[in-house]
Amino acid sequence: MRGRLASSVFLIAVLLLACSVWASDIPSAPKTNIYLADNAKMVGEEDGKEILGIGQDLDKRFKAQLVVVTVNTLGGEDIESYANRLFRAWGIGDAKKNNGVLLLIAKDDRKFRIEVGYGLEGAITDGYAGEVLDGMKEPFKAGEYSAGILKAYMKLAGKIYDEYGEAAPESVKVAADVDKKWTLKDWLIAAVAILVATVVIIVFEFIKCTAFYILNVLLYVISFGHFGSLKVKDSYQSACFWRRGFGRGSGGFGGGSSGGGGSSGGW
Amino acid sequence: MKKSTIAVLVILAVLLVGIVTTYNSVMSSKIAIDAQRGQIENQIQRRADLIPNLISTVKGYMQHEEKVLNEVTEARTRVTKAGSTEDLAAANGQLSAALGRLIAVSENYPTLKADAHFTELMREISGSENRIAVARRDYNEAVRKYNTVIATFPGNLISGIMGCQSVAQFTAEESAHEVPKVSF
Prior knowledge:
Number of strands of chain B: 0
Number of domains of chain A: 2
Structural class of chain A: alpha/beta
CATH class of the largest domain in chain A: Alpha Beta
CATH superfamily of chain B: LemA-like domain
Largest sheet of chain A: 5 strands, mixed
Strand content of chain A: 5-15%
Helix content of chain A: 40-55%
Distance between the termini of chain B: 83 Å
CATH architecture of the largest domain in chain A: Roll
Oligomer: heterodimer
CATH topology of the largest domain in chain A: Diaminopimelate Epimerase, Chain A, domain 1
Distance between the termini of chain A: 61 Å
């Protein structure tokens, strides 16, 4: 009996393994840093960080997910259906808003595509997607993949900010509109601004969390233990962003879908 | 109550639940087919709506290509007048073919290819073409699911009583649906 059980467990394990191997023609969805899946190693470290930063901001504010995926090869499939399959398998964008955008680059096939979820088809028209891809051709031909990808990313991000009626951060505008290099002074100002903003946010969150904790304890004492809690963890869970484990914000894809909108090209 | 009565009641209840869930799964897969069919029709319509704009842009550049332009316009009219989805698909195939010829001819007009409006329209049209392909794939997937549900146990019992027929896949000439490729 035990032997039988063991063998059936083994069989199931083998089947599961077989399934995962069979589905491995598209890369598996990343769990962290989901906005850049650089399988073909085309994006530099600095540019990658910038992409992740903007991606996170878009996700946090609008639940929109703008994702760059680079692969070495499409394995003979056309880029349109490959992109659509990957988009849906990963579930890019919010499941209700379907506001995902995928920038897929197949390095050895020299092809790229922007696939747009239903929810953003109005903001990023096929025509605009084609324009963005056109802008990538020149740097790509020169082998400057990282710069081309970053610029395209910023352009697309700018459209998403527009769609939700919010001003894009300065870094998005600068990178998308002008090609001019930042001077040391610009970098210093930006760094200081980011530092200040981070400190403000952390201090604010800390105050908020502490207040919640105190409130919770007070409630616990007043209600003789019926409500509230003495545990730090309970009160933090509801109030603190680091306790929420960054939630869906950077934890995974939202389950969005696409109907094949967007544009394709090559270089 | 006798033990046997309880047993019969339990069996009946289980049976009823089974029938209801099976019926629901048959119906929901049928509804999914209709939704996907609507999606195909929408996307075909969407592309057809871009055609008049394209024609008026192209006309300024192509004075001697009346025949090609007329073909496109006619095919577009057929799409807008098509009744069933099958007619629509056939008309859409003709429109694709006519557009293909138009694109081939446009290679001879460098100034047209440099026109920003033309470029934009062609992108929209090939985008539409891809959307139609995706919608058709989704439709076929929905049909496959439905056919499986009504052909296998327990769906086959319910579908036998309801008189459900299996639905044909959408095979509308794959070759005619080649996305028109324009190199700019």
